[in-house]
Write a structure and sequence with these properties.
three-stranded parallel beta sheet, 9% strand, two-stranded antiparallel sheet, 2 domains, mainly alpha, 48% helix
Length: 190
């Protein structure tokens, strides 16, 4: 399989996979990705990236090399397909507006399930992995009430308070988002 990016979203995915190139850099490049073809981007020299995006020489060289080596992109597409993962980029209309508003939004987010917009009524519930009976009591009192008013509960999915918040939400047939720092292919905890 020799995948070649066929959309600006796929080009953003390629950029997000380049070692040494983080979200700040990818977000600087996004405007050029939206207005240039794949072939145009491949023709950019490191000096073009320095001038257009204010990248350092080192990062510009990483971008040029990363755009030319699509092996990570091909592996990523295989993982996405194998694990039933969906993804959106910061330029997608489906990308959560609240996440887009943070200082450095992740250029790509991966998800399973539904990426439903819950822009107004979203609450993060986080706490200790060693949450005690008092933490459970508070969560069991607050979360069902919030869910009954249509709030979406967001947490990290870890043991303790995070898991308690997700469980309380699901028991009320509410919507919950687990934001996993470990990624969808290696969820922690299982």
């Amino acid at each position: 399989m020799h995948a070649i990016p066929s959309s600006s979203d796929q080009i953003i995915l390629v950029l997000s996979l380049i070692d040494g190139v983080g979200p700040v850099t990818v977000n600087r490049i996004v405007p050029y990705v939206q207005s240039a073809s794949w072939q145009e981007l491949l023709s950019f020299l490191p000096s073009d990236w320095v001038v257009r995006c204010g990248l350092s020489d080192r990062v510009a060289r990483l971008v040029v090399a990363g755009l030319r080596d699509l092996s990570s992109f091909e592996k990523e597409l295989q993982l996405i397909e194998r694990h039933g993962v969906r993804w959106v980029t910061v330029t997608s209309p489906d990308y959560p507006e609240l996440l887009k508003a943070i200082e450095v939004p992740p250029p790509v987010i991966y998800y399973q399930g539904q990426l439903q917009a819950a822009e107004k009524n979203t609450l993060a519930v986080v706490g200790s992995r060693a949450a005690d009976a008092y933490g459970k009591l508070v969560i069991d009192q607050l979360v069902p009430e919030l869910v009954s008013y249509g709030w979406t509960i967001v947490s990290g999915g870890a043991r303790g308070a995070d898991s308690m918040a997700h469980t309380a939400t699901l028991q009320q047939q509410g919507i919950t988002w687990a934001v996993l720092g470990s990624g969808l292919c290696h969820p922690y905890p299982r």
